[in-house]
Amino acid sequence: MTRPFLRRAAHVAASLLLLALIVAAHGLIPTHDDLTAPISHSGTIGGTVDAERFTLDVDKVELARSVSDEEALGGVEGLEANGVWVVVWATLTSTDATVSVGGTLLEMGDGYSYSANTRLSNTFNNLGIVLNPGLPRYGAFVFEVPEERLSSPTLRVSVQESLDDRLSAQASVDLGLSESDIDRLTEEAADSVAVPPIGPP
Q1: Model confidence over 9-58: pLDDT tens digits?
Q2: Which of 46, 51, 125, 151 lies deepest, with the highest CB count within 10 Å?
Q3: pLDDT score of 109
Q4: Do 113 and 16 fall within a single domain?
Q5: In b/e form, how buried is each residue of 11-49, taking b as 16+ CB within 10 angstroms?
Q6: Range of the domain at 51
Q7: Collapsing DSSP states into helix, strand and coil, what is residue 65?
């Protein structure tokens, strides 16, 4: 009687082990989103990130309490931040095809991400910004972020050649801001920053 019981217990244990292995293997299978996500290329502020379809050069970051479009018709008032505005100044250059600026995120060290704000007309955030090959364009990305969430920010910029953004090119730039840098920038945050229209560097 003991032998059949042991055999049955061994079968149950083997079945449970096999089931656990199947579940673990299933977790290793990439999702559709993983397979079609942007192809990312990394770099740091002050250097050029070559994302194959475009290059990205971030030259400075500043914080502000309010932002506005420079030379806006009708004298639009500044937009006050519910937190702080993070203004990232950069040059974008398409390498070999006409592309449009797609999704843009500011990703924090704690895992929180913030989409670029689209309420200003003069920023790269604005939908429909087109980059022609070989013509560098200088301007700003603007993000509204709670002060307490500012930590080790990384800028992620994607471009696409069509509405289909699968496997689009993405540049990921570590903004190189330590905790002390963020404290200093927050202390020195400008009352207002006027963002000029996107143009040549």
Answers
A1: 677 677 777 777 777 666 666 654 444 446 678 899 999 999 988 999 99
A2: 51
A3: 92
A4: no
A5: eeeeeeeeeeeeeeeeeeeeeeeeeebbeebebebeeeb
A6: 37-195
A7: strand
